[in-house]
Amino acid sequence: MARETLLPTLPHKTLDTTCDLGVTWVKRLIYNKSEHDVAHRVPKLGALTRKLTSKHWHCTSAFQAMASPPFKPYWRPVAGPILGGPTDPYSWVFFVVSQIGGRHRPVAVVSSLTDNSNDLETQIHGYALTAACHRIITIFSDKANHRAIRAELSLAAGYYVRDGTREYSPELVELPELNRRDLNPTGRRRDWYHAGVREFPFISACLLQGVAFNTQQYYAHPAFPEPLGTVYRDTSIEWGMVVIDITNLDAVGYGIVGFSVGPMTFIGSRYDEEHPPDLRGGMVFDFVRGELGVLDKVRPRRAMSAAEYMAKFEGEGHFPETPTKNVDQLIAKVPLVNVAAMDLIWPPSVEEDIDISLSSLHIDASKSLLDQYQATTTLIQRVLAMEDPDISILKQARTMPNFREVFSRVLLQDQARLLSMRSSDRLIRMAFVNREHLSLEQLNNLPVEAISAILSVPNLAKVTSISICIDRVQGTPAQLAQALSQVERLRKLYFLQSPTQGDEALSALLFAELAANPQILHRSSVMFAGAYSAGLRKRFWLPTAQAANGVQVAPLDVFPVQQILVLDQRYDTKKHAYVHLGDALLRPERFTAGFLIYIQSLLTSEDIWTTQPMNLFSFSSAPSFLDSDPETAAEVSPILAENFAVPEYGLLCDHDDHRSWAEMRDLVPGGWTVVVSLETHSTSRALQSPYEIHCIRYAFIRARQQCIVVDSPPIIPPGPEELEVTGLKDFLSCTAPEVAHATVDRRIQEVAERIAKIPYEGSLPLKDRISVLSQEDAAEILLNFLEDAGKNKRVLRAAKDEDPKKLLADQVDAGQTEGSASS
Fold first, then answer.
1. Is residue 572 part of a domain?
2. How far apart are CA 342 and CA 94, in angstroms?
3. Which of 501, 536, 571 is the last residue of a domain?
4. Same-domain pairing of 66 and 98
5. What is the pTM of this model?
6. Do residues 497 and 571 both lie within one domain?
7. 151-157: average pLDDT
8. Tens digits of per-residue pLDDT, 801-811?
9. Alpha helices in 527-648 (DSSP H)
């Protein structure tokens, strides 16, 4: 008897009923038997099932079409075994926002695009993301950065709200939509060489360094400055978002937005819905790849805390790092941003904003704020319209919302009248003086003589710091330098540039004038927005030609460290690295705080694509003082622009190592050079350690009487009478005697302890982890660098003359491995 006759003979009923009973019978048979048993005893069961289900589908489709609404195709998570489980977003975009003109507007944007080469140290996920959040918050919360940040926020008020009432917003910019399954690590490496102008370079530098350098693990992460018009989409399979709110710098807020991403399958019909493509054929044993999609159908417009983010995604086993308790405890105290902080950077949806720009978004929640702005503006305008404004009314109005911002904006609408009024000094103090700081960056066409006159007002005698937008000043850099040098009480000078100003030359000229007569640099700290703008665009800031001291524009008696020479001797070949510090503007103690962070990064990270020169952020975001904890303090200083400006590779040269570095400078008696040697300790074999033991030896060196010239190096290593060699404590005794030696010893020991905790690092007494080179060894290493400096120049020349990316692509296509020298 054929197996098909087992199906009971059914009376003539409706075709639907017949099909339903047949399918039900087959299902019961399958459920009551194992798959192997059914396949063995009913060899044609599969064909019969397909026949019945097909007939069932066709005979009921007409009825369903009349009884059900039209089918809408949709995506749903893959059922059954999958290849790659749900994860958090693969890459992250970081926004810094502040309330300006009644709305939270972006003032800096940085993205971190994950390199899918499976190098964990380049990825910002899990603990690394929470550490980045904490690092950014630390930078923006450090009071050493607040005046520069507030000065740029003042410029942002004029940038976003123009002519008093007209709002400006940049065009929307979409982040690149990528797929992590496409193994293209080189395509994910975005270079910001000569990128566009950053409107607020100091704030952007704060954010960039918080994202790019992890001071917990001493890893460098990819980071790329983005336009202010960049927006986040919650439908992206690539991106998550971090928002930092700096409206109140004494209570910086943050929030993480990210939704689960995983494989999904497309349900294109009712048949697919009842017979899902990922489950057809009964039990499935093959992995289902699916298409990556956002799994969360409901995506609430709220931010997560670091703890919530870790709890949401950690369960997938996606985070291999072990978080430190310090970060967890510190970030738990930070407030979360509110929904309004994300309104402009997170548009509702692509469909809803096709014809919408940031400037046309109308937010009901901010309507009352805008009304308050208008009320404050109207009152101030009426008072200032008087021939002799009644200051008492303005003093009473200080309690009105956003008084200082509106007051300064109204004053700036008629600057000529402001400077000519009898009460101008009182109005300026009310609008532009905050305790001991004078904010003049919003004033346009400001004569140098007016700056001198304002500073000479008796009521402003307590002002010790000033911020000026130098491209809005009427006068030469020499005149401005002369005027400011006459005010001996000034201790902090902030030289800003207009948000749309991309020429850093003016700030370089002003610095050169100050350096020519460095009394003001001796007594005052200076901030040049042009230095940050140049670093963010990977451009030279200060000229590289020979200066008065023979090596750099910055005076060596104020900024004494010229350069660092790093020799990596851990492996079979010696590798040379050159770090120029002439544009870093680091005083001795601040340099030391960054140096101790930097040397640890040399042993921690092996990723050549991102580590160099990102780990140089060790210097430009170090604590102000040596006794401060890098986890809770980070003063931002100029990015080492020349090191970033140097093209990474010079391929058409005759040197084995195509990596290019900043040029080595001559050693002069007034300046210090630091020599660092990375080594495998000689006791590795004697101790029979299963792992190699690495150590750091270093020395501060300087020429005693005569210059040691790079282009005419000595034949033999210079002796003690020619080269002074010392350690960190003796260097500070010469340059910053106020720093206690006990503090230096404690910090060196802390660094040695951190190095000892590096995975796969053998045990070694802490005193041997970091030690000072002898005079002979330091002189020998210096001679080695002097001999290598000529080769580095050839590599650098080739890198400057050629487009390194194009050359690399051409050589890969041609199968070449070496190039010829290019001059």
1. yes
2. 12
3. 536
4. no
5. 0.82
6. no
7. 94
8. 654 443 333 33
9. 529-536, 588-604, 611-614, 617-620, 641-645
Same domain? 521 vs 648: no
Q: Which residue has the higher pLDDT, 117 or 743?
A: 743
Q: What is the widest separation between alpha-carbon atoms in the chain? A: 116
State the pLDDT at residue 4.
38
Q: pLDDT higher for 784 or 808?
A: 784
pLDDT tens digits for 576-607?
A: 999 999 999 999 999 999 999 999 988 876 65
Percent of the chain with pLDDT over 90: 43
- Residue among 519, 475, 516 at smallest CA distance from 493: 519
Q: What is the DSSP string of 243-270?
A: EEE-SSTTS-EEEEE---EEEEEEE-SH
Domain for residue 267, yes or no?
Answer: no
Domain count, the chain: 4
Same domain, 609 and 682: yes
| Peptide bond before residue 170 is cis, with ω within 30 degrees of 0 | no
pLDDT in tens, 529-582: 999 999 998 888 998 765 555 678 999 999 999 999 999 988 877 889 999 999
Mind listing the pLDDT tens digit for each residue in 248-298?
999 999 999 999 898 888 888 888 888 776 665 555 445 567 788 898 888
- Select from 521, 536, 551 the last residue of a domain: 536
Q: Is residue 728's pLDDT more than 50?
A: yes
Bridge partner residues of 469 (DSSP) = 496
Task: Taking residues 177-198, report their average pLDDT.
Answer: 75
Is residue 4 helix, strand or coil? helix
pLDDT score of 370: 60
CA–CA separation, 450 and 460 (whole Å): 14
Regarding predicted confidence, which is higher, 559 or 17? 559
Residue 572 and residue 457 share a domain: no
The rounded distance, in Å, linking the Cα atoms of 137 and 155 is 22
- Distance from C-alpha of 263 to C-alpha of 247, rounded to nearest angstrom: 39
Q: Does residue 276 lie in a domain region?
A: no
Question: Taking Cα atoms as reference points, which of 231, 240, 230 lies closest to residue 294?
Answer: 240
pLDDT at 479 over 90: yes
318 & 428 share domain: no
- For 21, the domain range is 3-70
Mean pLDDT for all residues in the chain: 80
Judge if 393 and 354 occupy the same domain: no
CA distance 821 to 799: 11
Interacting residues of 209 by C-beta distance below 8 A, sequence separation 6+: 139, 617, 620, 621, 634, 636, 639
Q: Name, in order, each residue with C-beta under 8 angstroms of 677's C-beta and a sequence gap of 6 or more.
A: 567, 569, 696, 697, 698, 773, 777, 781
CA dihedral 775, 778, 784, 788 (to 10 degrees): -140
pLDDT score of 657:
57
Residues 454 and 580 in one domain: no
**Which residues have CB under 8 Å from 82's CB, separation 6+?**
262, 263, 287, 288, 289, 290
User: Phi then psi for 389, rounded to 5 degrees?
Assistant: -55, 140
In Å, how far are 234, 256, 505 from 227, measured between CA atoms?
Answer: 19, 20, 22
Q: Does residue 712 form part of some domain?
A: yes
Q: What percent of the residues of the chain are helix, what percent strand, and what percent coil, each to the nearest 5?
A: 40, 15, 45
Q: How far is Cα 515 from Cα 510, in angstroms, rounded to an integer?
A: 9
Q: Give residue 47's identity as a one-letter amino acid code.
A: A
